[in-house]
Amino acid sequence: MTTLKLSIENVDDDFIQSLKEFLKSKSHFHYKLQEKHSIPALDEAIREYEKGEVVTCANFEEYKAKINE
Which of 4, 24, 28, 56 has the most beta carbons within 10 angstroms of its beta carbon? Predict the structure, then answer.
């Protein structure tokens, strides 16, 4: 028996459903799907944070001033 780990990114729900139906049709396949739903704006914010691209403020007024720059 061979094990294959496959990662596919940026697919829509129709593709996922089609893949599930295909795998179900092959009775000798054992599969486990892990779906990760991402939010592009949140993913970008996390990348910026990890790069150190953050704004540090002492209070909300300072935050508002920096945002309006």
Answer: 24
Q: Rounded CA gap, 64 and 52, in Å?
A: 20
Look at residue 7 and give its three-state secondary structure.
coil
**For the purposes of burial, counting CB atoms within 10 Å of the CB of 55, is it exposed (0-12), middle (13-18) or buried (19 or more)?**
exposed
Distance of CA 32 to the CA centre of its chain: 18
Identify which has the larger pLDDT, 65 or 35. 65
Domain boundaries along the sequence of the chain: 13-67
Residue 2, both tokens: 């061979």
Instruction: Specify the pTM.
Output: 0.40
**Residue 59 DSSP code:** S
- Residue 20 CA, chain-centre distance (Å), reads 20
